[in-house]
Amino acid sequence: MALIVQKYGGTSVANPERIRNVARRVARYKAMGHQIVVVVSAMSGETNRLIALAKEIMPEPDPRELDVMISTGEQVTIGLTALALMELGIKAKSYTGAQVKILTDAAHTKARILDIDNHNIKQDLNDGYVVVVAGFQGADEFGNTTTLGRGGSDTTGVALAATLKADECQIYTDVDGVYTTDPRVVPEARRLDKITFEEMLELASQGSKVLQIRSVEFAGKYKVKLRVLSSFEDEGDGTLITFEEANKDNNMEEPIISGIAFNRDEAKITVLGVPDTPGIAYQILGPIADANIDVDMIIQNTGADGVTDFSFTVHKNEMNKALAILRDKVQGFIKAREIIGDDRIAKVAVVGVGMRSHVGIASQMFRTLAEEGINIQMISTSEIKIAVVIEEKYMELAVRVLHKAFELEGK
Amino acid sequence: MALIVQKYGGTSVANPERIRNVARRVARYKAMGHQIVVVVSAMSGETNRLIALAKEIMPEPDPRELDVMISTGEQVTIGLTALALMELGIKAKSYTGAQVKILTDAAHTKARILDIDNHNIKQDLNDGYVVVVAGFQGADEFGNTTTLGRGGSDTTGVALAATLKADECQIYTDVDGVYTTDPRVVPEARRLDKITFEEMLELASQGSKVLQIRSVEFAGKYKVKLRVLSSFEDEGDGTLITFEEANKDNNMEEPIISGIAFNRDEAKITVLGVPDTPGIAYQILGPIADANIDVDMIIQNTGADGVTDFSFTVHKNEMNKALAILRDKVQGFIKAREIIGDDRIAKVAVVGVGMRSHVGIASQMFRTLAEEGINIQMISTSEIKIAVVIEEKYMELAVRVLHKAFELEGK
Questions:
Q1: In angstroms, rounded to a whole number, what is the distance separating the alpha carbons of residues B169 and B134?
Q2: Is the pLDDT at B246 greater than 60, yes or no?
Q3: Chain A contacts of B109, Cβ < 8 Å?
């Protein structure tokens, strides 16, 4: 008997028929003798519907009230899922995030989980219930409803698995695992049987939308065994996210590159002509962080004549907000010449634990892009990935040629 | 400066434009220096949509999970209403029933309010906020979400007004007050400037759908000044619900009959041929009450030959459930000859405090119906109303002729 947390995304619970499918899968696991906690997202489209409704009233909705509204999406799904289980004769009980209680900080629309009270869930599991928990949401210390931001349901699943010391956290989605890249862009993309947490982290952060990045961080931190599976197929073991250490012995067998990640959700902001003095990065990014805007890539070149240029990327939705902050609060203070925003960019990255022990990956990547005439605007590297920013219109082409260049299609 | 609770029903918050209208009215009251608590229902149609969704999964949805789902309706509206107020530059903050907290018993889908913690609301009002509270919902002692049943938002409004010792509880609806009867049935129906709590109670319980009966009971118990107004008109003072005592002196001026109530939501159940012995009413109605089915009229005639017939009415939706209970658990035990259900009935009542001191109201009512050939199936009386059950198809005719017979159209 194992304790399994199963998380189902919005497309997996998009309508009553799919919710019944979820219930049938849960019933099969329950029949094997497992204890099951189900975490569900809002029915697909529901969160966007609620956000649009809020924006009809207030173009930039107050975050506290927006959370009150959008948290209802998952609340409907937990009720429906519990009903579907009961209809199959299975004891089931739903919890909102606040009811669990999943304690978060007060950063509405992008809250972080601080603690989970698993007392009631454990009691219910021992009493034979399947426990259905609303993903994506929690409550702060004063009982205000909070949400964890997009993809937060994955985080809820992993956090519950961690606190309950679950044997496995299964993430059901509309793909049957993690691929070398998005099959919609490269039809030859191949499903990976397993992938390391670190690679997954890079793939997720680079825009491979299978798993939300914070959930992977969480899983790594608390050593949660994470598996990505399709909610539309009953066969297949999906992709297991492993700890890198487990593969050390047979590293020779592992491919150098695991996959190609990409995303077009970011915008580039460049601060031109800033004095090349200590503290400049903080003076630029401090006000951005204070406004709770996430920054991804950050590039600063060595300057000439005591001035330099400073670039970073933020989510496209936050570009105008970031530009306004920089122009209002920063530009005059640091005497920057100009502040430029560009939201027609894409980021493409090659990811692989294997590249640590292989040279030449970067040069092969740059040559491949150069051969197609694709200009590289920014470069950022880590031990297991090389990311570049290019013009958005070249994104699919770049992904395809890199996938081929690193021989990811065949096994 | 007054403290006013304003309750807006589903049609008053049916879409963003109407929610903006609500915000504008609240803003006007706020500008007059009043403290305002706003109680809102779900957007019209939303509760029914959610119930239908639940029934798609489970034809008789588990009440706990149904409450989890349908309580999201008001939760969306409080968020939208708070946003609409903020958009007008007014400080606003929303609360779900559980957040307030409105403590109820555990009778899901028809819970009763046990206590309200008004601490946070008082604090917010003193800090200059308009407080927006979700009607219709609360939480039991274990934090399970509960709902108060249809019309429960009125009860929330009155209960909040009572606990906050509000100066007035304003119920905004799609009519501009309480009428002598439904103007859709009798175009000559006249709006009443005021009406006693007792009359309102009878009118509400008899199906005049302006106010929910429990809210009127609550208001009477806690002496809350209640006013019914139109949310679609800015003029007019609506109908004030008064305590009867206030009118004692000028009773001579008051009309004998205040209005004609009617409803077609009930079904009649008759238990034929039961022994005319002590305890028979309890043996029949005990199991019905245990199943949480509300019973309205109850009639038992004196029997002949030691047997009698016993009739009562329940909501149409619960007729089959009640019939099943009687046939399974009661019929054999009390040796009843037959159990009959009839859902093609209507109830019509004349209501008025004045009838206490006037004879002949009943005979005038019965004569008026007889002149139209309308047969009376059941009669039930109280000090301030006479109600009859008739065949459903005669309902509108009965209401019209009674409205005319009691001269309610003119002033």
A1: 15
A2: no
A3: none
Instruction: Give the residue from A140, A377, A156, A165 showing the smallest Cα distance to A270.
Output: A377
pLDDT score at B302? 67
Query: Does any CB of chain A come closer than 8 Å to the CB of residue B43?
Result: no
C-alpha to C-alpha distance for A84 and A77, rounded to whole angstroms: 10
Query: What pLDDT digit, counting tens, does each position of B48-82 carry?
Result: 999 999 999 999 999 999 999 999 999 999 999 99
What is the residue whose two structure tokens read 């909040």?
A: B160
Query: pLDDT band at B39, cuts 50/70/90?
Result: very high
User: Exposed/middle/buried for A137, CB within 10 Å: 0-12, 13-18, 19+?
Assistant: buried
Please state, in angstroms and rounded to a whole number, the distance separating the CA atoms of residues B162 and B160: 5
CA distances to A91, A286, A321 from A292, rounded to whole Å, are: 42, 10, 11
| Residue among A16, A92, A99 whose CB faces B143 most closely | A99
pTM above 0.80, yes or no: no
What is residue A398's DSSP assignment?
Answer: H
Q: Does A143 touch chain B (CB under 8 A)?
A: yes
Task: Kindly list the structural domains of chain B, giving each domain's residue range(s) and its CATH number in brackets, ordered by start.
Answer: 3-174 (3.40.1160.10)
Nearest CA in chain B to A19: B57
pLDDT of residue A243: 67
Please give the Cα distance from B204 to B219 (Å, whole number).
13
**What span, in angstroms and rounded, lies between the C-alpha atoms of A149 and B342?**
54
Asked whether the beta carbons of B33 and B1 are under 8 A apart, the reply is yes
For residue A50, the chain B residues in CB contact (below 8 A) are 76
Q: How far is CA B274 from CA B271, B294, B298, B307, in A?
A: 7, 22, 15, 5
CB–CB of A64 and B19 under 8 A? no
